[in-house]
Amino acid sequence: MSQSSIEWSGVFPAVVTHMHPDQSLDLPACARHWEALIESGVSALIVCGSLGENQTLLPEEKRTVVKHALAVAAGRVPVVCGVAEMSTQAAIRYLHDCEKLGAAGFMVMPPMVYKPDPRETQHWFRTLAAATPLSWMLYNNPVGYHTDVTPETFVELADIPNLLAIKESSANTRRITELRNLAGDRYRIFTGVDDLFLESAILGIDGWVCGSGIAFPKENQQLWDLAQAGRWDECRALYRWSQPLMKLDTHLHFVQYIKLLCQETGLGNEWVREPRLPLAGAEREQVLNIIRDALAKRPA
Hints:
By secondary structure, the chain is an alpha/beta fold. The protein has one domain (about 10-230): TIM Barrel (Alpha-Beta Barrel). It contains twelve helices and eight strands. The chain has an eight-stranded parallel sheet with strand order 1-8-7-6-5-4-3-2.
């Protein structure tokens, strides 16, 4: 797949990075999971995002995951790389390396660890945009990363030619309409909060960066297809079934929760990279009860 052939619309799953119990990469497990997602009809794969434990992967491991994802996708869907680096220089090196490997585009987060002010935030995104010819999505998640790119700021950033999409994860669905009113159709708007999918779809989005749905990809893709077709009664019924599972994507331990969910649906395992630890005790039992109750009611 050529570097310019990405279409920013549809379901873009943010995939987990599967690991062995010793925390080393489990690339065969990644490949099996990616195949199931591609088979379900997704429009792209996003690797090395927050759910992919980007910040705990070594630089060479990130490149290995990207290279492997490109080999598995084999041009069937574009591979988008999450950018969550600690410094501008490290981010630019990562952009260039992913370009050389054949990535289709990027999902760029704000600077990690350091909380930038508005001037620094714009400088970060503008500098990275200028470092690559590839198109990219700006990941706005003020809840998780304490940096808010407001609709007004997106108007200011509209002169960046390769900034084509927004992953809106502020958990404020008003933002979708505000973005449309202020910026028109300048950006492709994706929701990034799973249990606000239906509300966001009604307001008019172009895509969905899903998290929990990677564990039940067929139903997740069906949700998107039903919403696109305006079959709201059917969509609402499926959404009500999936909502307890989608809510697992909104917790501090969302990586552990979703990896456990993948394990329960046969699409992975629960091993994570420290400092995260697998769930234990009452919390693990509580999450398993949520998962198993939902799966027992899984639509035919």
